[in-house]
Amino acid sequence: MVAEMELSSEQSKPAQLVTSKKGGLRTMPCIISNEALEKVASFGLHANMIMYLTSEYHMEAATGASILFLWSAMSSFTPIIGAFLSDSHLGRFRVIALGTVVSLLGEIVLWLTAVFPQARPVHCDDPSKEKCVSANTAQVMLLFASFGLMSIGSGGIRPCSLAFGADQLDKPDSPKNEKVLQSFFNWYYASVGVSVMFAVTVIVYVQVQLGWVVGFGVPVGLMLLSGLLFLLGSSLYVKVPPNKNLSAGLVQAIAAAWKNRHLALPPKNFDAWHSPKGSKFAIPTDNLRYLNKACMIRSPEDIGPDRLAKDPWSLCTVRQVEELKALIRILPIWSSGIMIGVTIAQHAFPVLLANTMDRHFLGKIKIPAASFSLFGILTLTIWVVIYDRILVPLVSKYTKRPRGFSFKQRIGAGLVISCLATAAAAEVERQRRKTAIQEGFLSNPEGVVSMSANWLILQHCLTGLAEALNAIGQLEFYYSQFPKSMSSIAVALLSLGFGVGSLVGSLVVSIVDDVTKKDGVSWLSSNVNMGHYDYYYWLLTAMSVVNFFYFLVCSWLYGHCEDKKNWDEGEGRKEMEDLSKSGEYAVMFSA
């Protein structure tokens, strides 16, 4: 209730006045700590979850991996819903607060599965010598409920935190605004990287050394702290009012274009476009011209005495059409990010393989199998710092771009390096399997080979570098192409792409497991020494190479994209307010 009152008072003030008194760097600790602690909690649970599923729920490796892929996919899909809710109905502050509460509930449920033995199957000491009891329906549903709640919660936090932080610093009139926002994006991603490093080391170590009860209890405490810190800064935040007709505007533009599809496109000198007085969007662009039919005024009867469309489902404004075009145009490049999502989501199998190798590092230090992903996150974090502080100033002198390399160059470079990452994983696994067979472990999946697990570091580092280049490039690309009112949607598109990648990953695992087991032993067998995980990684490499060439085509078709379009946010809000007053705006999307 307090949050609602604060948001209402924010909406009644001019945006410039609110911005001048609130926001700024002083809000960053509350916002970034919320996202960082959420990442510690969620990644601390996800990193080692394959071991929990195989050891406590007695699942096959392929089954457990598929479940984790689906969990990751759901956690990536829900942000697109959270983005629409925040941008068009509730506002980012309330969506983040609600997401934090729901995530906390999910983690408590997962913790309870470890606390109460009745919540999971009877413990099995040696799966190779006795048949382990599978989880019953109630136990599985309780486990899935915890995953579901955490996914719903992440849908509120992940798409909004970055955009909410940008709201606090975004000053379009400042000549340093672009540089400030770029640095914010990079350092925000770096802070997330540090939190994930903490998760895959400290949290995983606690789980391995102190057991699942303590290992799952620590994330619960961190998530509670995350919510409290975020709410403490409530009175300091800039809270951009939600555009309650944003989703309606996109749908109406689609509906109007469909209804007018039979109309012929007008000549170049046509000027009867529906655009409010004073709008900078007086004439639609030539991109996706068929959508321009949605804002063509066919006769004076289409416009009412208030100069608004009598039927907004048959005639919309030029701005609405341009917003829809912006969303449609980026979809091909967005789709090229799905395959790298498959690569980044490969959490389960590297853990299982590392568990069969010598995990000593620098002598006596023995790294938990799930902690090798630390090297990927460390690479990502180091690259962000080097790129932001060293490469950008040097490269920008030659490219004449304030960002150094272009969006497309960074996205493409990330795709190339992801191909190298899966190829490296394939070769390392070929050597590991060969060593296991030579040392007599073919029928003993629990045996630890003499080969060092440090060979896995290369693939993790390449994956981290690929994510740093591709993900940050995508974030800046989407943010630059959309108006501020759609910024949460822009951020959520990255998460959505990785979500589809997780679904594709789950599908690939299921198909590979079903097809290859017909010949005797699955490539993805729970006995990693009898399986052929190297073949699986080579398959991912081939798919990634094809995807890179697809990206090149999409990039060429999109054209130049380095300049941020001036959407004139004040005008956009005024236009939507005027349309709302007509009383004919989408009832189905009303608050």
UniProtKB/TrEMBL annotation:
Domain of life: Eukaryota
Chief location category: membrane
Topological relation to the membrane, as annotated: Multi-pass membrane protein
Entry GO CC: membrane
Membrane spanning residue stretches: 61-85, 97-119, 139-166, 187-206, 212-238, 367-387, 489-512, 535-558
Subcellular location, record wording: Membrane
Transmembrane as UniProt keyword: yes
GO terms, molecular function: transmembrane transporter activity
Record keywords: Membrane, Transmembrane, Transmembrane helix
InterPro entries (UniProt xref): MFS_trans_sf (IPR036259), POT_fam (IPR000109)
Cleaved signal peptide residues: none
Family recorded in the similarity comment: Belongs to the major facilitator superfamily. Proton-dependent oligopeptide transporter (POT/PTR) (TC 2.A.17) family.
Protein name: Protein NRT1/ PTR FAMILY 1.2
